[in-house]
Amino acid sequence: MRDEGTPGIERTVESVFREERGRLLASLVRRFGDLDLAEEVSSEAIEAALVHWPVQGVPAKPGAWLLTTARRRAVDRLRRDKSYAARLAVLQVEADRADPVAPVEVGSDLPDERLQLFFTCAHPALPAEDRGALTLRCLAGLTTPEVARAYLVPTATMAQRIVRAKKKIRDARIPFRVPGADELQERLPGVLQVIYSIFTEGYAASSGPDLQRLDLAEEAIRLGCILRRLLPAEREVAGLLGLMLLIHARRAARTGPDGEIVLLEDQDRGRWDRASIEEGSALVLTALTGGPPGPYGVQAAIAALHDEAADVATTDWPQVVALYDVLFAIAPSPVVALNRAAAVAMRDGAEAGLALVEELDHEPRLRGYYPYPATRGELLRRLGRFSEAAAAYREALALVGTEPERLHLQRRLTAVEAGGAG
Description:
67% helix
């Protein structure tokens, strides 16, 4: 009987499931060929763990326990529903006949089954936004609200996308396999986007008590390393991995002893991970050599300029702005424009940056994005326009997700309400 007084066990189950979800789903989908079935029996395995582990103890290999339990539940279901089992078998045979392309040779050397499902979820038959949403939800274990935040859309919209993507996979009979050599280039951008979205959620969590979710950030970096080994000639793979390493190198200095935010200009750069910075900087050179730059390579170059500077004042802001110009030319977005405006403020002053920020006021994709009003509030604060800054900080507070970010904004708001810069 489940012990309701053991929240520690529930946290352990949640932690294990967060870590093992991708592997679990990938193994089950590979075995049974049905994503819905895999998700359902995975959930049943978690429920079983919540019942048995408080009594029997957490097994030595909890991931293996969950996989064995889920497989048994799937087999039981297929035994009970003969027509469903037969339909799955027919669909699998038809899918193999319709798409008999042999996997690329490197596929057999994939060190992690999850990447096979990454490429499957990035199938070109799916709309671009659905590919990332499905992969983040199923393989990375992000909740639907977290996925929605990564794509700057409402949670209900994201839930519809995920359901739509799963239905498309089922109806179009998309096979679960490593793509053929001629398909890799078409599928790669979707996979890169998914990995970076996972990293972004880890670097700046969408909600919760902590600013960072280091488990997600490190998982994204690990997947990036695997993809880099799989596709060593792809410069954008190098760019993405370099970008993640260069940003993650600052992790120890981004929060104080109580988890509060430490802004870039106040961070102790002696706590930055120099080995990650060196590795990331070397990958930047690879990403920017041999052809036109890609968006991840350019972003990695921006991150390298920050990491290699002695402090904020000596950062090469003209070069940062120039790189943002390149980035906006090849991958324009409101978020890139906002980041460029912040860099212009460092190069040319708060007034120049604020003018660019206010040009973005009409962008619908920034309306639910708290860094937009927060950036505007910061620039107004620097200009001494405290009442306007207070209004912007209040707007940001209504949108912010994590407790450290909320506390930081509240401190800024209190300072400007008192008529000071804080």
